[in-house]
Design goal:
alpha+beta, 4-stranded antiparallel β-sheet, 2 domains
């Protein structure tokens, strides 16, 4: 990782040619004089670091899409989503805020006592495995159907 002013980027450089991702996961390509290129420079193409960045970008973009999808489903279902989920990942927080989701307290029993529908499941990218608290499996199934 290199620093370019206030923006952190991932980059690979070979003989002055570079390719990388900026802080918004947009690709950039440069020649040795710093000029912008429209495609991956031949000197950089095929480097393992470039493949790693491609996979990193793919996983982060997929994670963002999954967060938006599930946050939307939970918002439509009127589910109270645990505050811990929003605090655990800024992507989740943004997705929940955009979807208009309702954040609950860290205390699941207190939320349930108030008549709230608690969503205690999430899809973890890149493995796409579903995490869930056993006591909330029935609630999760209701949310997943919505």
């Amino acid at each position: 990782m290199i620093e370019t002013g206030a923006v952190s980027v991932w980059s690979v450089e070979v003989e002055g040619y570079s390719a990388g991702l900026d802080d918004k996961l947009e690709w950039f390509f440069r020649n040795p004089r710093g000029g912008k290129l429209k495609q991956v420079p031949k000197k950089v193409a095929g480097r393992p670091e470039l493949e790693w960045m491609r996979e990193l970008r793919r996983q982060v973009v997929a994670h963002e899409a999954q967060c938006r999808e599930w946050a939307g489903k939970w918002a439509l279902a009127g589910a109270v989503v645990p505050q811990e989920l929003a605090e655990s990942d800024p992507v989740w927080r943004e997705a929940l805020e955009e979807a208009g989701g309702v954040l609950g307290t860290a205390d699941a029993e207190a939320d349930a006592g108030d008549g709230g529908l608690i969503a205690r499941a999430y899809v973890h990218s890149p493995s796409e495995s579903t995490g869930s608290y056993r006591s909330w499996v029935r609630t999760w199934r209701l949310i997943a159907i919505a």
